[in-house]
Description:
The complex is a heterodimer. Chain A is of the alpha/beta class. Chain A is 37% helix and 26% strand.
Amino acid sequence: xxxxFKNIFVERExxxxxxxxxxSLSERRIGIMGPNGSGKSTFIRLINGLxxxxxxxxxxxxxxxxxxxxxxxxxxxxxxxxxxxxxxxxIVSEDIEFGLKRRIPEPKMRHQRMLxxxxxxGVLHLQDRSIHTLSGGERQLVALAGVLxxxxxxxxxxxxxxxxxxxxxxRFEQHLSALPQPALIVSHDLELMRTMDxxxxxxxxxxxxxxxxxxxxxxxxxxxx
Amino acid sequence: xxxxxxxxxxxxHRTAAGVKLLLLMLAGAGLMWVHDxxxxxxxxxxxxxxxxxxxxxxxxxxxxxxxxxxxxxxxxLYTAFAQTPLGALEVGLRIYxxxxxxxxxxxxxxxxxxxxxxxxxxxxxxxxxxxxxxxVALVFGLTLRxxxxxxxxxxxxxxxxxxxxxxxxPFTMGVPMLLRTLRRAQDIADALxxxx
Lengths: 225, 196
């Protein structure tokens, strides 16, 4: 899976959010770091067409986000920072099946896929639970199961470990390493960044560093610490 | 605070959502014509039996009913004063039977099932091209889902302002509530778009 950013500029209300961005992403695990408000979330929202650039072109597996956003969204699974925004229905099974409605019209097959996705993350026991009774970590896993159920070809995570305690954060890291799909992960978690194949550092809307995790985290500590 | 629905395998859970909603509507209309307190009492006991059969915990049911009880009590007292004590008894029994019936439907019918009923009801209008039935059903489902969360959000803002020594007033509460609700709506819209 190849993601290409070609001469990207993003502006909001006259303010530059991302500028002069050209790069190709094909590694299995790509981390994105940067100070708050630097444009990291904007960067990943460009990948599935949630945001469109002012100028330039983004292609995911050869598909242009301006022209073929529906096809791209079927390929790209997006896990948001706050699972409460991602989980629409009050019961776990109901929410995951809702996300599959367009892809799998047959209710029994939808149900089966929902069970498989929960089982993949070891949270099958949560299927009948109300979202309101789940812990933050469990909600994060349910949100991830909802995305995995759609069998995406690539995963995008927006600060997935922010709301997790150390135990759940470690568990998330294990799940992440077991997932077969390529993944892009925005995070401030330097430990997590060390497990990546490539790390981008975005500062004030510009790609400030692009390299292997050890160099990227060292650069980040020196310039943004 | 979440939705009233709890997953289960009782015959009430398995009954089609459309049938339950239709029966609730007919019961609502029918009970208005019943003026015998003994029949109303029997209906109330019947609904209680159904609640028990649904597998719901009676303690939880009482918690839900308790929040509305002050309103029912005011209505009963008003009726006793304006009409007769027997009339007040009828009003009380009728309202509790209907409240319990509505609660029973809510507890045994998921939002997704209710949305399916709405899509079915709107199908003729959808075919005429007047409405997008799936979109209307989604708005309905999201509204049901988010009402309890807005209550929590309101309490959060109230607590944050109380911690700063501010008294509640419509402006200081309304503005952050509006901003947070708009922000949340945008986040949910993004998440729905991403799940296309």
